[in-house]
Amino acid sequence: MLKNYLKVTFRNFANQKYYSIINTIGLALGIAACILILLFVQNEVSYEQGFKKNKQIYRLIQDFPMGNNHISKTATVPFPTKNTMLTDFPAITSATHIYRPSSWGNASLIKHNDDEYFEDKFMFAENSFFEIFDLTFIKGNPSTALKGANELLINASTAKKYFGEEDPIGKTLNLNNFRDLEVVAVVEDLPSTTHLEFDMIASFETFKTFFANNPTFFDTNWVWVAGWLYFTVESEEEAQKIAAVLPEFVKKHYPEALAEKGMALHLQKANDIHLTSDLELEFKTNGNINHVYLFSSIAVLILLIAIINFMNLATSRAAKRGKEVGLRKVMGANKEMLVAQFMGESILTTMLSLILAIVLIYLALPWFNNLTGKDIVIDLLNNSQLLFGILGLGLFVGLLSGSYPAIVMSAAEPVEVLKGKSSSSSSSNMLRRALVISQFVISICLIICIGIVDQQLRYINEKDIGFNQEQIMMADVNFNIRPQYEAFKNDLLSKPDVVSVSFFGGSVPGSAEVIENAFVPTGSPATDQQWFSTLFGGHDFEKIMDIEFIEGHSFQVGNSTDSSGFIINEAAAKALGWGSDVVGRSMDQLNTNNGIVNRSGQIIGLVKDFHYQPLYNPIKPLVIRLTGGGQLAIKLKTNDLQGSVTSIEEQWNNKFEGNPFRYSFMDENLNVLYSKEYKFSKTIQYFSMLAIFIACLGLLGLSSFATESRRKEIGIRKVNGASTLRLVALLTKDFSILILIAFALAAPIAYYFGDMWLNNFAYRSSIGVTIFIIAGVSALAMAIITVSYHTISAALINPVNSLSSD
């Protein structure tokens, strides 16, 4: 019997090549897209799983009061928290502090012989780091590494970069032309599935020597929110107990001025960081749990569209197989046997689709990795879990796809179908229409969402952010360059394509981090302090950005008042209650740890608000100070940007021989801050187009069946004088009505989810009616074009042939 079923199945494949190919390709595309997206989702949810203690690892994070109704949420905490946490909470089994200079705008310059590189992934950590995160040591001893001063651990890639095939142990690398560090260990590179990121780790004891003149710094400075603090506990219950008493911990240890203004600490599971944490001073850009939910939904919806195609085509062809079903029933086949046959055909089709899907996945994986920024690898022979998962998915799709068609076709009455009556019922036709509507509800929703996302990204690119971001080169500098800065600046200004040169640091536009300090109007108590973002700018900084001054002026060379003065934005003036009359007022920058004034100065200028942070956030109060920074900003005006860069690089190398020239452009840096949204947009676009294509593929099969079923009607209408255009309109009308119904259902659904996504932005575009019109017209046009392929062909057939056909 099985042999007979297989023979009939392959015969049906051969006799119905067109429908079989549509079914196979549609399912293959749906399964391939579903598996690719689920591989992405699996990668996203697997972060930190490579660490044995991942369920026991927690990070301490902080809410920092910044002034009126604003709390800065940071992934870092002050250094004294570690020892006090260990003292107050015995349940903590291990704890470690991490500090990374690049998070504060100071890329580390590492030198070996004649090779020099800026290393953004250089950090300081304690030996207890290895008790929490079990790195794989290639060389060195985890129990002793980084316990002493001037010790350095590097990963395998960095070892090869600096030392090639030589043994790096015992060799030295120079940090910032200031300190030689001895390599004591080499570890394997971190997997991509962790929120941590480093190439080099220097011992925390080395970092402490930088504060040798202030031996109590790491025990008393509760203001500098500088380091990440990770710790382990034995159970989640213990962590919850610690979390419950953190408010008392803050009151006990933090300065009163902060504790009373809303300072708060929280625990964060390491396993939750990648998908749920979007704080200031993250190690790197994290994922987004909402994107995971959305992509998972898209995977299911694409697969659902492919399954609907299969069900629609199978049930629509039930009439063609009616006589076969009738004969089998007459010959003694019962309903269960027929269901088994049709389910077997469905599963076989699905398995063929699955094989094709796997081929498509291997071909598409490099493109998909580039699109999502992942490094996903598929090795089915060595990954039995993935292999059985894919086979299980194929079996599930086969059973689901074939279930309804099998029930419909096996329910046919033999006497009726042998007389030539159709086995399809009005309920089946209604279901097919409902399924087509469902497909296009999904497709139209995706088209509208693409439009909303694209419109917001265009809004970001086109919005006036309050300054000119074009052609601003940002070059990294170190302490060696600063003594020769003025001479280099004058040399650059002699070039016709250089408009201005200045230093920048702190809360620089395009930087992922912001630097914040406490300020009060002069004479006000320390308890009135507010924390404002701080931008460090050199002379002529305003010429770099074309910032608009409302009142006052910028820093002037030789003016002692200006050298200690402050420039503030409108948001800061509002927070201080000053309005626009600010020039000449005085303000103090405080050491919140003890309330002592660190710096006093007059307000010399008020600038119009500008967006120095991404549009996710409202414009916050900003103070601009005259000081050096970690970046040299060069404003260009040229039609040959690359030529200008080459010329500046040559001058740099002549002036600062041995110092690497590393640069970026401010507008590019600003775009990087939206990298998640751009990847999200691209991914949505491609998979939405695929979903629409699969839906149209099903429509192509249904339109073929519909025109074939009405062939004689078409012939009669042509004999009676119907034009080809009228026949095409007649045949496409039913499908067009279904698309219009789908649009009416999809529009409010897409609006709801699109509006919810836009709420992530403090500054957002509006959802206009144009997007909906374009989506509706596009879906209708694609459906009509798809259906017209068969309807035009049918309308052009000689009516004599149509009327003489069976």
Short description:
The protein contains 28 helices and 24 strands.
Task: Explain how this protein is built.
With 806 residues, the chain is α+β, with helices and mostly antiparallel strands. The chain contains 28 helices and 24 strands. Strands 1, 2, 3, 4, 5, 6, 7, 8, 9, 10, 11, 12 and 13 form a 13-stranded mixed β-sheet that branches. Strands 16-17-22-19-21-20 form a six-stranded mixed barrel. Helix 12 (289-316) runs parallel beside helix 24 (675-709) and helix 17 runs antiparallel to helix 24 (675-709). The longest helix has 38 residues, at 335-372. The chain is globular. The mean pLDDT is 85.
Which labels suit this protein?
806 residues; 3 domains; 13-stranded mixed sheet; six-stranded mixed β-barrel; 18% strand; globular
Secondary-structure blueprint of this entry?
Elements (H helix, E strand, L loop, with lengths): L1 H14 L1 H29 L11 E11 L2 E5 L6 H8 L3 E8 L8 E5 L2 E5 L2 E4 L3 H4 L4 E3 L11 E5 H8 L8 E4 L3 E9 L12 E4 H6 L7 H4 L7 E6 L2 H9 L1 H8 L2 H4 L4 E6 H7 L12 H28 L5 H9 L4 H38 L11 H27 L3 H5 L7 H37 L9 E5 L8 H9 L4 E9 L9 E6 L8 E8 L3 H5 L3 E4 L7 H5 L1 E4 H6 L10 E6 L4 E12 L14 E5 L4 E6 L4 H15 L7 E3 H7 L2 H35 L1 H9 L4 H35 L10 H28 L2 H6 L2
Parallel strand pairs: 6-11, 8-10, 17-22, 19-21
Antiparallel strand pairs: 1-2, 1-12, 1-13, 3-6, 3-12, 4-5, 4-9, 7-10, 8-11, 9-10, 14-23, 14-24, 15-17, 15-23, 16-17, 16-20, 18-21, 19-22, 20-21
